[in-house]
Amino acid sequence: PDGRPLAGRRAVVTAGPTFEPIDPVRGLTNRSSGKQGYAIAQALADLGARVTLISGPVALSAPIGVDRVPVETAREMKAAVEAALPADIAVMSAAVADWRVDGVASGKLKKAPGGPPSLALIENPDILASVSAPGKSRPKLVIGFAAETSDLEANARAKLSRKGCDWIVGNDVSDDVFGADGNTVTLFTRDAGDESWPRQSKTEVARKLAARIADHFKA
Ligand code: C5P
User: Fold this and answer.
1) How many domains does the chain have?
2) What three-state secondary structure class fits 49?
3) Region label for 177, one of left (φ > 0), alpha (ψ between -120 and 50) or beta (otherwise)
4) What number of other Cβ atoms are within 10 A of residue 105's Cβ?
5) Catalytic residue among 30, 124, 155, 183, which?
């Protein structure tokens, strides 16, 4: 028998950026290496969870023992998350583009004497908010991320109630975070207090978060 703390649990993790096409060769995207999300997927699998990792385009190989589903757009990511439910745990670490281009050009847009084209943007679905919505397929523990350059606590607490998730991993991105191996994180929970973790590697942050998740299910 598998005595690991998350054996028998299912987890869905989103990671990396999304890519929203403008035309066949261009797009809008976000800065995200995917490192933190991939490390979380790995750490959950190491504790025995069955992990589906829904990943935007990144330059990382799939963690061992994790089922990776590659996607590009926010809408593809949302569909892949829904297909991976039900799950006990959802960790939404992806940097999802807030907008996509309305009316993607079927051919490459050309430079023209009339000046640059204008792009009409429309809002993407909020995957974290929809996964957090009450219902029978809502995971028991839904965790979101808040990357902020200031007012981390106020922004993270506001996000907790606006999105309806259970925990928020607050990320101070004024520090060197994008693409780096280290991360400075505060965990905000709905029922318990906050926990600030000193700057440590993304692997350590992931192990610590996975251990907190395991404690939550043990309690
Ligand atoms: O609203 P904001 O983008 O700052 O919230 C960040 C959190 O919400 C992250 O957990 C991110 O993965 C998630 N998110 C999402 N779908 C969106 C936007 C953000 O799942 N469209």
Assistant:
1) 1
2) coil
3) alpha
4) 16
5) 30
Pick the closest to residue 55 from 26, 28, 84 (CA basis). 84
Could you give the ipTM of this predicted complex? 0.97
- Token couple for 6: 């998350």
Q: Is 136 annotated as a binding residue?
A: no
**CATH number of residue 76's parent domain:** 3.40.50.10300
Q: Is 155 a catalytic residue?
A: no
Whether residue 110 is contained in a domain is answered as: no
Domain range holding 170? 10-102+117-218
36 within domain boundaries: yes
**For 13-59, what is each residue's pLDDT tens digit?**
999 999 999 999 999 999 899 999 999 999 999 999 999 999 999 99
Q: How far apart are CA 74 and CA 98, in angstroms?
A: 8
End-to-end CA distance of the chain: 21
C-alpha 113 – ligand 1 centre gap (Å) = 38
Residues with CB under 6 A from ligand 1: 14, 74, 92-94, 96, 124, 126-128, 144-146, 159
Is residue 112 assigned to a domain? no
pTM assigned to the model? 0.95
Give domain status of residue 108, yes or no: no
**Distance between CA 130 and CA 67 in Å, rounded?**
22
* Closest listed residue to residue 186, CA positions, set 177, 196, 172, 173: 196
The amino acid at residue 174 is S
* CA dist., res. 14 & res. 189, Å (int): 19
